Amino acid sequence: MASIIDMIKAKIDVVEEVGLVVALQKSGRSFKGLCPFHNERTPSFHVFAESQTWHCFGCNEGGDVFTFVEKQQGLEFRDALAYLAEKAGVSIEDNGTRSPEEEREASAIKERLRKLNEDALLWFHQMLLRSKDADEARAYIQSRGISSDSVIVFGLGYAPNQGNALSGFLLGRGYSEHELVNGGLARTRESTGNTGGVGSVERLGEASSGVYDYFRQRIIFPIRDARGRVIGFGGRALGDGQPKYLNSPQTVLFEKNRVLYALDLAKDAIKLAKQVIIVEGYVDAIIAHQYGTRQTVACIGSAITEKHIQQLKKLTKQVTLALDPDAAGATATEQGIQEALKGFDRSIVPVPLAADGHRTGTRKEAKRNEPRGMIRLEEQVDAEINVLQLPPGQDPDEVIRQDFSLWSYSVAHPIALVDYYFVAKTASLDLRQPGGKTEAARRLLPVIAMISDRVKRDAYIRKLAAMITVDERSLHDELHRVLRRQANPAVTAMFSDPGGLRSIQRAPGQQRPLTKEDRQDDEIELAEQAKEKSRREDQEQRNYVLDRNWQNRLQWEDYLIGLLLQNPGLSQYVCGIINDGDFAGTDTRELYRILNSVYQRGSSPLHQSFEQYVPSALLATIARARESVESKSPLSGTGLIKDARQCATRLKRMQLLQSNTELRYLMSEAKEAGDAESMRQYQEQLLAIHRQLRTIDSAMHLHG
Ligand SMILES: [Zn+2]
Description:
With 704 residues, the chain is α+β, with helices and mostly antiparallel strands. The protein is 55% helix and 9% strand. The strands form 4 sheets. The chain has a 6-stranded mixed β-sheet, with helices on both faces. The chain has a 5-stranded antiparallel β-sheet with strand order 1-2-3-4-5. The chain has a 4-stranded antiparallel β-sheet with strand order 6-9-10-11, with helices on one face. It binds zinc ion (ZN).
């Protein structure tokens, strides 16, 4: 039976989670970025999708998704578990992880954070209304056509360009620096972070407190949850401050890829209008509301995620996307559509198997080249996704203010997805040229193929034929080839839900006798299938070896924890050899940490009482660890100490070998990229690891 921790890890991708906070760059099979835990200019922070771990080769911090959340949000394991479980949709309540007091404590923390946000909002708002410094901010708001009513309704504010004006105010109200930082309103002076607003830290060095304001010289847009409670802020830079938009960092309340701006104000209107309009910017949403299109929300950040849709589908089945109409926006719109579809019916989304380890990356790429998943969904999804057509180059707020009748007509007559694709996919093509015509057909036939209704499909074939002035019959032939290829098992096998996909594959009557050309196609496809199969087998073999090493390591960790549980006095003999960061298991790592702190407090836990220090999600691990020791013949005295030291040493060695593997991999990446500086750095660290390994090996030799 999978543990709660395993279930969470299976659902939450460490690359995705880290990516919420750190701008990650794909680099071969790993991802790199600037370390959020120490100040650096060149990235030495790496995330490994395959092992679902991260490591900073600069400050030597590392671990899994739990460690990251704990460190980044300043949470205890227990709270990180609660946070990740909620995110993964895994219930920990049934397992009684928290006592009622702890439950109260956690909600008290959230409550206090909400209070903090409310206080900050009032302060920002007062600043905007009264501060002399806010002239520029007020002028900007006026220039965007935002009425003073809207300023009040949306609670807009202003963050002045001072080091710690807000921090000072909030500290004066009795909040701690820790609370300000965890609430995303301040940063500590030592870590500049890398999510923006960097650069002025040195200048602020002379200020007295240990924190400085997160938002400076910005218009503040308070972000509320569906119930209207302030959970975070968005700040737009005044002047040429960078970044232009800065949102609150991830906190226990604020989850960037889930928040829909103005949802609290739009909820009722969405139900009434049976439609939700999704725009990109704060101002777009405010202006839409101001002019009466109150079924409008904005997605914070760039793309629409499944989590956004999850919240909306309770309210309506019609999603209208009013995203940036320019070229870059078209990609975003397309991504939004894919996410929207995904959100509406999760069960039939054909998720490609992780080909290169990283789940999201490959999924997105696969989808870009392979519109089938999306296509099949559209037929099944009980939802209507359409697109607002706005004049090119104009944002929704401009259209609304300049030509409201055009806006409200577009809102009432959004264009269907397929029609949108007809425009979007051919915008860059010259349809008078033969090359352009062929390309248009190549791009649009798969879109047409996704329409299940034959009459509709024929209509779109006619439309395409007219558009590129090509004979309808030849397009029909091509369409059948596309349909046939879609039914090909080679493609189906790529998806993890073959049943779901196959059952909606192809209606009878679409078959036709094979022609010579088809057979050639088949031969090519067979060759590709064979290649794909051997590639997958290689990967499986590699995963198997990895898996075996991993399992082996986890078993030793269980054993060591078991030894320490039985004999708390052993801690002093192993704590010099390994520390909690050397553990591969999330559960064993946390247990080791608790064991050490209990031991250091001098209260040696008895057999029964240790469990009281431990979240119930870890109780199964304790049982397993005890069993692992009890199944061996009992040791005593020096034998026991020797056994514990050996086990700790072995685990340390495994950890060093893993770092060794990671570094070697990064070395080869750097070599390929011709990055001499990184190579030198990695080389140095490899040498350090080899030195440690030699020390360990000789110690092992000495102590037998
Ligand atoms: Zn670091």
